[in-house]
Write a structure and sequence with these properties.
The chain is an all-alpha fold. Helix content is 77%, strand content 0%. The radius of gyration is 27 Å and the shape is globular.
């Protein structure tokens, strides 16, 4: 493993060196870096600025000499200055932070939702759900991201913010959404005609009644989950975690997951002093403690089935913590809504100017600015991961070892989660590695539409101003990320498939 990593690093360094010179050379000849100074009416002052910038950028030296000077400074940790004399390191830090906020949430959600729904689509091959998902995936993939961004601005921000002035859902809208929900659940559940009709009726009625209750109670102006919803969601999450990771063949894993959820509910009752105004370090610490409590409960309650009970209880604890986190966010919503004048969904920038609030209000402000660009990026990536996951899962399900697992009498859940799913992840891992490495370089179009000052903005601005140092900083971050994540993907192959040896 060590020899493999060293060899890959050496090859990657030489590749990055060659590519960096090409990028530096291309940026340097892309235009005139003095164009903004040549229109100054005071010729004496303009000439002084031109001479100062020429010395700063070393324009009197050949491009190769300038590249070597930049490379030598880089080896000492200095990214140089842009053509206006600003430190590139000072520009790079905020740009990376803004881009990470923007793309990480979209990428993680696209992977989780895309892989999950793609696998369900493969298991429901040629069903109504599969055909509907295939149509939706191709539709999302074909949409131009700039058009999606503009539509989201209009209908998911402007119109939604206007609707919040009097948030009442009309009866025809409730009926349509109920029918759509019924059709979706009918396709997901599948089965014979009676089962599908039952699923359609139950889902449509429950959705319609839920929307009517939320509208009539004014929930959209003063939302919150409350104790009853927290209890129902936490216990439901415990059941779902057990089904996903352990199954219901033995009762100990389910008991451990339910006990863990119960501990979380008890914590929720006395959590106000701790969660009134926390910070991210406190939230992270509580998440680690929650998972640790789940592992301990799973170990002692699971008995001889502790190997199945521990991950189920840990996932149940994490889910319960997430429910509590969302409840506190919703409790702060009404106060935040009044502070932003009833317009919580923002269309520009990464934050409200001069906004100061507690942890929960600041979190809602970040979410309000993230939701539109995240959705725009999510739709396209979701379509890609859905199709890849479906194709990979269908290929794996026809392999001999899957048929052997079924012939041994293993349950379908065990066959899918422990045999098929793990091997289906191998080709998807390559896509994940490339995606994570690429998005750190920024989402150029999305950042431009939504006014984010991220890596993509820094890259485009550097090209337009014929300013190599910011462009090279972008290249180092994006290129280095791709190298690192592809190396991690190679290592992950050996974990996912024992037949693969990294060497």
């Amino acid at each position: 493993m060590a020899a493999f990593m060293v060899r890959r690093l050496v090859i990657s360094v030489f590749t990055l060196l060659a590519a960096s010179f090409i990028v530096f050379w291309g940026t340097s000849i892309a235009g005139d870096p003095m164009s903004d100074l040549r229109g100054i009416q005071d010729e004496g002052d303009a000439q002084q600025q031109i001479d100062a910038r020429s010395r700063r950028m070393r324009l009197g030296d050949p491009i190769f000499v300038r590249y070597l000077a930049w490379l030598g400074a880089l080896l000492t940790g200095d990214l140089g200055e842009n053509k206006f004399g600003q430190s590139v390191s000072g520009i790079l830090g905020p740009a990376v932070s803004a881009t990470m906020q923007l793309v990480v949430a979209a990428t993680v959600l696209a992977i989780v939702l895309g892989v999950t729904i793609g696998i369900v689509s493969a298991l429901r091959q040629y069903s109504g759900f599969d055909y509907s998902l295939t149509f939706a995936a191709f539709l999302f993939f074909s949409l131009p991201v700039f058009w999606v961004a503009v539509m989201l601005k209009q209908y998911a921000a402007i119109d939604f913010n206007n609707w919040l002035r009097d948030p009442e859902i009309a009866v025809p809208v409730i009926v349509v959404l109920g029918l759509v929900s019924g059709l979706a659940w009918m396709a997901i559940v599948g089965g014979d005609r009676q089962r599908r009709l039952t699923s359609f009726g139950v889902a449509a009625v429950v959705t319609a009644l839920g929307l009517w209750a939320l509208s009539a109670s004014g929930w959209f102006t003063d939302p919150g989950l409350g104790l009853i919803a927290v209890v129902i969601l936490s216990l439901g999450g415990a059941v779902g975690a057990t089904f996903l990771l352990a199954g219901f063949r033995y009762r100990q894993p389910l008991t451990a997951a339910l006990v863990t959820a119960g501990i979380g509910i008890v914590f929720y009752l006395f959590s106000e002093p701790v969660l009134e105004d926390p910070n991210w370090l406190m939230i992270l610490l509580l998440a680690v403690i929650a998972v640790g409590v789940g592992l301990v409960v799973g170990r002692y309650v699971g008995g001889i089935h502790r190997r199945q009970a521990m991950p189920a209880a840990a996932l149940s604890a994490f889910f319960t913590g997430g429910v509590i986190f969302i409840d506190y966010l919703l409790q702060a919503y009404s106060t935040y809504l009044s502070r932003v004048r009833g317009r919580p969904i923002s269309t520009i920038g990464a934050g409200t100017p001069n906004f100061q609030g507690d942890f929960w209000e600041s979190g809602l402000d970040s979410i309000g600015h993230l939701i539109l660009p995240t959705t725009a990026l999510l739709l396209i990536s979701f379509a890609v991961y859905t199709r890849y996951s479906r194709a990979s899962m269908l290929e794996v399900m026809n392999q001999d070892y899957v048929r052997t697992a079924r012939s041994k009498g293993l349950t379908e859940r065990t066959v899918v989660t422990k045999h098929a799913f793990r091997n289906a992840l191998i080709p998807i891992t390559t896509l994940m590695a490339f995606d994570f490495g690429a998005v750190i370089g920024g989402a150029v179009i999305t950042e431009r539409v939504f006014g984010w000052q991220g890596m993509g903005h820094m890259f485009i601005k550097g090209l337009q101003e014929v300013d190599p140092p910011p462009v090279m900083a972008f290249f180092l971050v994006a290129g280095g990320s791709i190298v690192v994540f592809n190396m991690l993907a190679d290592i992950a192959y050996a974990y996912l498939d024992p037949r693969i040896r990294v060497g």
